[in-house]
Amino acid sequence: MSKFHLPVVPTSSFFTDPSADIFLDDVDTGSSELPTMVYPEAPVLSADPTPAPFGSSLAEPSHFSYTLNEPLSSPNSPPAELHTPPLSDDSSLRRSTRHEPHSYREASSNPLWQQAMEEELQALDNTNTWNIVDLPPGKTPIGSKWVYKIKTRSDGSIERYKARLVAKGFAQEYGIDYEETFAPVSRLTSVRSLIAIAAVRKWRLNQMDVKNAFLNGDLTEEVYMRPPPGYNHPPNKVCKLNRALYGLKQAPRAWFAKFSTTIQNFGFFSSQYDSALFIRKSASGIIFLLLYVDDMIITGDDTIGISDLKAFLNKQFQMKDLGTVSYFLGLEISSTFDGYYLTQAKYTSDLLTRAGITDSKTASTPLEPTTRLTPLDGTPLPDATLYRQLVGCLVYLTVTRPDIAYAVHIVSQFMSAPRSTHFQAVLRILRYVKGTLFHGLYYSAHSSLQLYAYSDADWAGDPTDRRSTTGYCFFLGDYLISWRSKKQSLVSRSSTEAEYRAIADTTQELIWLRWLLTDMGVIHSTATILCCDNQSAVQIARNDVFHDRTKHIEIDCHFIRQHVVKGSVHLLSVSSTDQTADIFTKAHPPGRFHDLVSKLKLVSALPP
To answer: Where is the Reverse transcriptase Ty1/copia-type domain (predicted)?
Structure first.
């Protein structure tokens, strides 16, 4: 590589970082498939593979003139103050330490970002990321750009300044410079399940991070890139990429393939039920490694084996040992002598700042019990950008906040054309989470590891198309590990039919969880209890009789009954009062809502 050269140029042009997609397990927008929601710095396609708690990569709208009752901040409002000591006596430099540049021109005038860019170019040089060559005839080079991010700790203090060189992968053409792009990441249900098991078995949760992870991926296609800004190179030359540079469509897949092959050489195998869960069993014990792009959790009872694994990974990749897990994918994980506490308090606080909710007004529930939103309510928003940003961030907040899953499921159905009443509903959700800022999940060492589930449906609850809503939740012992609020794909002709479809969806998740937990060393030799408050649906599952009232759901009937007969599922009828999944199917008045929240075992502070 040529010598790095970062000239100082005047600040001028700006660009807006493209957002990426993240798939979540726990909330649905109303379609039969999982939604694709916008989340800042999603790991698969963004320049930075580590999801930050809440970053400014979501571009502020150019204007937002619609006025609602609740106050909104100006798009030019300053970000939340980061507590970090001044690095210089110069006031302009002190201000710039808290600002993320939007262009190379802007960043090159700041020595902090100059150093970050030099470190990135040095890392690219160390991994032999490209060779400088002549562009072959018939080939078209893609461009590149710099992306800048201030990495913060869970308390808001600055950890480091990060500059990432990203290829403009949107210019790639399928079949020419890329083919397959899918790369698995661990499901968030798997993360919660592993933490719950580690708490009961009193295992330490270790966290490691791979530096410049994608640059370890081997590139098999011919990809040419124009030299990046600030890079000293001969004229009329291009970079022939040897490594999967960030931004390339195939980069996540190449990195996962490289890591998977490497870790299997150390005696690990991949779970069939979560490809990002790697397991090693030996006479010394068992080790689990859960990978989410470049972040990993390592746990198990083989402490010597874990130390050997860390040493092995350090030899294969440039690693950072973060010790006991404390901040993973934007989740704040606090450990006590008898368990783990998961919350997203900082993420929530930053989200409230972004929304401009700075007063003390809160709401007792996420939605009014009488709320029935439709696509034609209110007046159209002149700019839907802020609405989509807030709802996308609320979707990620449901990772530790099942109490808002139904409300977020409702407002996420209006992303394409939000209106004033929809925005009012979003603000109410935000005011509810403001009053419950430290709500989170707790996994105690004193819990059992017995799996059981609740399934419920709200028949014809959608006022627009009269489709029903499925809600379910799963407990591992006393604590919640999986839940969902989802609109059913078809209109049900009776409440029994709606409930039965909900049971079918719940059974599907139940079977997958049993398989996953078996891989994690938790074997359920008896049937898993599935609670339902509709006796007719329970009777249909127990009785092998088909007639005119059930022939249109015959496939669901066969599916559920098959697992009932096999002894995987035991349907249990419960009263509506004891139906915990009711919180995922409809809005409730404060008394009933808080009763259901208590059943979910949410805590608002670390248990004494």
So the answer is: 128-368
H or E element that contains 380: none
Distance of CA 181 to the CA centre of its chain: 19
CA distance 470 to 315: 48
Q: How far apart are CA 446 and CA 564, in angstroms?
A: 30
Joined tokens for residue 486: 């989802």
Token reading at 357: 């909710």
For the segment 452-511, what is each residue's pLDDT rounded down to a tens digit?
999 999 999 888 899 999 999 999 999 999 999 999 998 988 888 999 999 999 999 999
For the whole model, what pTM was predicted? 0.81
> Over the stretch 86-102, which tens digit does the pLDDT of each residue have?
333 444 444 456 789 99
> Which tokens hold the place of 467?
């489709």
Q: Which long-range contacts (CB under 8 A, 24 or more apart) does 80-84 make?
A: 80/156, 80/349, 80/350, 80/353, 81/156, 82/150, 82/152, 82/156, 82/157, 82/158, 83/155, 83/156, 83/157, 84/157, 84/158
Amino acid 178 reads Y
pLDDT attached to residue 34: 32
How many CA atoms, within 13 angstroms, populate the side-chain half-sphere of residue 60? Answer: 18
* Listed residue (97, 291, 316) closest to 216, CA to CA: 316
Dihedral sign for Cα 506, 507, 511, 517, please.
positive
Q: What are phi and psi of 65, to 5 degrees?
A: -100, -5
Structure tokens, 214: 């994608």
Are residues 177 and 169 in contact, defined by beta-carbon separation less than 8 angstroms?
no
The answer to whether residues 584 and 322 touch, using CB atoms and an 8 Å cutoff, is no
What are the structure tokens assigned to 341, written together?
Answer: 């506490």
Which amino acid appears at position 380 of this protein? Answer: P
Distances (CA, A) of 211 to 191, 255, 298, 320: 21, 12, 17, 7
User: Given strand 440-444, what is the order of strands in its sheet?
Assistant: 327-328, 331-336, 339-343, 440-444, 602-603
